[in-house]
Amino acid sequence: VQLVESGGGLVQPGGSLRLSCAASGFTFGNYPMNWYRQAPGKERELVAYISSAGWNKNYVESVKGRFTISRDNAKNMVYLQMNNLKGEDTAVYYCYAPAFRAWGQGTQVTVAS
Fold first, then answer.
1. Cβ neighbours of 105 (radius 10 Å)
2. pLDDT, position 2
3. What does the alpha-carbon distance between residue 57 and residue 65 come to, in Å, rounded to a whole number?
4. Quick one: average pLDDT of 18-26?
5. Phi and psi for 87 in degrees, rounded to 5?
6. Rounded to an integer, what distance in angstroms lies between the CA atom of residue 7 and that of residue 79?
7. What is the pLDDT of residue 16?
8. pLDDT band at 51 (very low <50, low <70, confident <90, very high)
9. Which of 12, 51, 60, 65 would suit a FRET pair with 35, their CA atoms being 20 to 30 Å apart?
C-alpha cells in the first residue's frame, strides 16, 4: 500500500488549496479514506472521511463548510479542497487508508500573510 500526497504550500488567510493523494497497492474503490492533519505541538486529528463509493462524508467541526473531501475511484485518487483557509489550518496533512493502517508522507500547509 502506498499513499502519496501533493498540493500543499503557503497560502494567505482566506485562500484555497487542493490536496491530492495518489493511492496504489490495493483495490482503492473498495475502501474508505481519511485526511488527517497535525499542527506543531498538537496531536494528529481526523479532518475528513469519505466512504468507499464517496456517498458518505464526515468532517471535523472546525472545517465544516470550508473543506470538501472527494475521490475519483477510476484514478485511485482522494482529494481535499480547502477554502477560506485560516491560520489554525496550518499543519502537515496526511492521507490515511484505515483498512490498512497506511499513511502517506504528508504535505505541509501553511496559512500566513
1. 11
2. 98
3. 12
4. 98
5. -60, -35
6. 10
7. 98
8. very high
9. 12
Residue type, 100: F
Query: Using 50, 70 and 90 to split pLDDT, how confident is the model at 92?
Result: very high
3-state secondary structure the chain: CEEEEECCEEECCCCCEEEEEEEECCCHHHCCEEEEEECCCCCCEEEEEECCCCCCEEECHHHCCCEEEEEECCCCEEEEEECCCCHHHCEEEEEEECCCCEECCCEEEEECC
pLDDT for the residue numbered 108 = 98
Residue 68, judged by CB atoms within 10 A of its CB (0-12, 13-18, 19+), counts as middle
pLDDT, residue 42, reads: 96
- Which residue is it, cell 474508505? 32
Distance from C-alpha of 16 to C-alpha of 49, rounded to nearest angstrom: 19
pLDDT of residue 31: 98
- R_g (Cα) of the chain, nearest Å: 13
